[in-house]
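Suppose a colleague, Dr. K., hands you the sequence of a protein chain of 418 amino acids and asks what its three-dimensional shape might be. Before reaching for any lab equipment, you can write down a predicted structure in token form. Begin with the sequence itself:
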Amino acid sequence: MPSTGGFEQLTGYGEARARLRERCSSHGRTEERLLDDACGRVATQSVEAARPVPHEDRAAVDGVAVRASDTFAASGRSPVRLTEASGPVADGQGVPVQTGSPVPGGADAVLRVAGLERRSGELVVFESVSVGANVARAGSDVAAGDQLVGAGDRFGPADVALARAAGHERVTVAERPRVGVLPTGDGLVAADPATGERVETDGVMVASLARRWGGEPTRRPTVPPETAQMESAIGECLDADILVTTGSTGVGERDRLPAVVSDLGSVAVHGVALEPGRSVGVGSISGTPVVLLPGERVACYLAAVQFLRPALAAIGGTTARPFPTVRAELDGKLPSEPGTRTFARVGLRRGDGEGHPDDDPRATGAGRVRAVPLQVGGANRLSSVTTADGWVEIPGRLEGVPAGETVTVQQWDRAGRL
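The predicted structure, expressed as tokens, is then:
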């Protein structure tokens, strides 16, 4: 069994996330948005093509629109001569076209520029083309009525472009979930800390993460861990779809926040078999789900990724996307405690030992990719997050991962929105 670290008991990582998910339902609010503002938003109804794409036959290459039958006899030794024209294509004629331009009437193929020469108003054709060659037929990309985006799907840049091409200007999407962010703790200041003070950063970080994941955060002023003040501040946040607090979640004398939440509503989880982030909590007040994040910076970041991110997706009517991953050979042991879900920070290097962490190792031809352990503990060393290239998740059934093992590195900062 893992050490409880002063907690009465630790809830399993999976069970804790499930209890939060039970408290998070879609808010059901929708709004109509211009497509320009739809990227990253969740569709609340399916979007079908109002017209085919392309809506007419288009040239797929730069060249000359022709009647294919006029070129059948053409060869390098015996070229065919066509008259260059500017309108609909008649027998023995060709009309110059560019990639993406409409195929003029009468033409049924496009001859590439490389297959002809232009001489004094004539087109000398050295190769033949078949009917339909180098032509993007109307509806060849999307037919009218095809589904472009399903209900519950998230618009990406290509979805936005395709929906516009298929005849849409506005779409109906889920409103962004409202996120109340409430930092708590002693001696927290906005800037220029004096002796015994420190700059409040967790609330800023969590608000930034919530915005990245599709939420609309409101960051409240920091409150000290005094019962009356925390109760009042929490009461002002309950118009949000989810409340996220930072700090005051441990087991010390000043860690009063779980008790305050319990008095105002209920606490389903306080203490999770998670490293770092053991003091995370889950509860609800008057129907509003509450996530209590630890005050240690790395633990706060990790717990936000693992709890707030999927909660926001559920409230917004969708599910969180899987993280991008890289498979790598572990260059050093990663320790972990049995019974505890551990997330370890690693750097990625190419097999030749060269290359900057920002290089994408998958794009190199330098052999295997190595995952270099950076940090397992160190719940306050935020610099270890900014310099890491990813995280290795170690299940509770394992007692560490030995060097030489192939591991999956999750790249949280490459995930973008949800």
